[in-house]
Amino acid sequence: MRILGLDYGSKRIGVALCDELGITAQGLTTITRKNRTADLEAITKLVRTHRVEKIVIGYPVRLDGSEGIQCEKVNRFISLLEEACSIPVMRYDETLSTQHAQDILSQANVRGARRREIIDKLAACLILQGYLDSLSSGK
Q1: pTM
Q2: pLDDT for 70-83, tens place per residue?
Q3: What is each CA distance from 67 to 81, 126, 127, 139, in whole angstroms?
């Protein structure tokens, strides 16, 4: 089953895709946000192109587990995404995924424009890989 992973942000949406066996996530692209219609069209095109059957989107719960305004924004986007793509969209706790991505890029000595280019795609990869790992461990 092909699963698309999304790191939804106010300026960019990081995108990752799992292999056909659903074992590993790879960064696919970063969508620069324009408007909801363009964002949904870009994702819908990826869903069709890669024959995606499910989308996993990072869900930004607070460290204490509560939901804030960012969760409301993601929930609104999920509703639009489900309608546009006609496939299930799963929420996956993305707590500290961007921080983890930043740590990885710091250790790899990636800086400046190159870092901005790949941070969201890497965060999407971490979200999707976490989801895949939770499936295989039965959590």
Answers
A1: 0.88
A2: 999 999 999 999 99
A3: 20, 21, 18, 21
State pLDDT tens for residues 25-50.
Answer: 999 999 999 999 999 999 999 999 99
d(CA 13, CA 111): 20
Domain CATH code at residue 70: 3.30.420.140
Distance CA 99, CA 94 (A): 10
Per the structure, the complete domain to which residue 118 belongs is given by 3-137
Rounded CA gap, 91 and 43, in Å?
A: 16
Residues 6 or more apart in contact with residue 110 via CB below 8 angstroms? 118
How many domains are there within the chain? 1
